[in-house]
Write a structure and sequence with these properties.
Elements: H1 10-39, H2 45-54, H3 56-84, H4 89-121, H5 123-128, H6 131-169, H7 175-197, H8 205-208
Length: 227
């Protein structure tokens, strides 16, 4: 079957979405589970800053991993829109937009990591700021990165719920995937909104929150095997 508007077959759309998800499954774990925990010490901005200064290339590669992941999110949003457009054109478009909003917010959050990299690698900044001031800024920027990303997950959760509904309505994608996506999306929504309704002491959690995945209801794995 070929999408009459885009001229792209559903098979090709599925292949493009699969390729994007595969790239995310490689880039995201590298950045989130290898680079980030290796350099960022929770609750210790001074040690974190020293680690980044000592491993500048590794930190930069981690930022690059995040950026590649979010670029693939854009590609996946488009491909999934084409794939599910025959089910419901308008709802498929809305679903793609929610993922794009998530991606834009997450990319804005990445700017905080870029700022950290500049602060700790440009000699002028190292001489202008006192070490305590520099460490305070690093801690603040890391918190902003995680907070921005956490906010973005709200839109990602809505995207997954809508995506799961479209999959359930389709006749060419296994319905079990739709159910998994809806459950996962609801899990993200509960995880994101829960603290506002049931506030607890979470001083360090925002710095430690792991990468969101398309296939885990508790947000504790990075592999986006299901999208």
């Amino acid at each position: 079957m070929t999408n009459s508007t885009t001229g792209i077959s559903l098979r090709n759309a599925a292949l493009i979405a699969g390729f994007a998800i595969l790239m995310m499954a490689i880039a995201a774990p590298f950045a989130e589970f290898f680079v980030y925990p290796k350099l960022v010490v929770s609750g210790n901005a001074a040690e974190t800053a020293k680690n980044i200064i000592a491993h500048k290339t590794l930190f930069a590669s981690g930022i690059f991993g995040y950026v590649i992941t979010f670029i693939c999110d854009v590609l996946a949003a488009w491909a999934l829109y084409v794939l599910l457009k025959p089910v419901n054109d308008h709802l498929s478009l809305l679903t793609a937009w929610f993922r794009l909003v998530y991606t834009v917010i997450a990319l804005v959050a990445i700017v905080n990591l870029v700022t950290i990299f500049r602060l700790l690698t440009i000699p002028d900044y190292l001489t202008v700021f006192e070490p305590s001031q520099l460490y305070a800024q690093v801690r603040l920027l890391l918190g902003e990165f995680r907070s921005g990303w956490s906010f973005a997950i709200l839109f990602f959760g809505i995207h997954l719920v809508l995506l799961g509904y479209l999959v359930l309505r389709s006749h060419y994608i296994p319905k079990i995937l739709g159910a998994i996506l809806i459950i996962t999306g609801l899990g993200y929504l509960i995880t994101t909104l829960g603290p506002f309704f049931f506030p607890v002491d979470r001083i360090h959690e925002v710095e430690d929150r792991p990468w969101p995945s398309d296939g885990e209801t508790d947000g504790r794995k990075t592999d986006r095997a299901v999208c």
